[in-house]
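To whoever is covering the structure queue this week,

Two jobs came back overnight. Logging them here so there's a record in the thread.

Job A:
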Amino acid sequence: MPFDQPLPREVKVTDSASLFRLEERACDLSLNSRLDPAWVRANAALDGAHYLWPALWNSLAHRPEVPRQLRCELLITLRAGDRVVSWLDVLPADFNPLPRVTSREEGMQVSQLLDRAPSVREWLLREGGGSGQQ
């Protein structure tokens, strides 16, 4: 993938099964930005919609065998209905086939939620739980 490739400017929506696969892949590849897949499985709403918004390209200079990744803001819908924000590094081959948000209204709503939702860390501190970060 060329290094001058522009960042995708689209919000992707994913179901929980796909989110679990993305988190597990990031963990298997030891990518920098990810959550503990067990935490995601325990807390993400099984029927929830989750959103990815690319923020920057990331690469692991010390591991050239790992392809460049999209570092995405991740909006997770939790089982209790709360939403939290985190980061997730996603390979372009995994990001591209995800369905994209097609309405401007939904995209604007996701943007506002990304700005207002607490981070996973803030949510955990408020709820008194352990860390979801690795």
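Job B:
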Amino acid sequence: MKTTSEHNKRIAEMTFAAVYPHYVTKVERKGRTKEELHQVIEWLTGFNENKLQKLIDEKVTFETFFEKANLNPNAGLIKGVICGYRIEEIENVLTKQVRYLDKLVDELAKGRKMENILRDE
């Protein structure tokens, strides 16, 4: 499945603050914690809880969110299908980064062990 320029633009302009509550709801509904979610987000982006809250309060777009992020060097190990897209085949860098985050949240909600989610070799 190939992403379109309209799809990529929509993702870039979406605010992290609008999506974050859905991440929290998804993981908590499956018995995981907000702290575990923050651990996953920090692993991917380098944002600690205070920085994450600041970005939420500022209502930054995903584009700004990932521009400010220090992406984990092992992020490329995140593979698979999320939202109907195979991550390895996504060409747009920002869309791929957002799907990395979506995939990690999905794995957390599905009960995967933290050491497997964080892909630290």
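Note for Job B: The helical segments are 5-13, 16-29, 34-45, 49-57, 62-68, 93-109, 114-117.

Please reply-all if you pick these up so we don't duplicate work.
Q.
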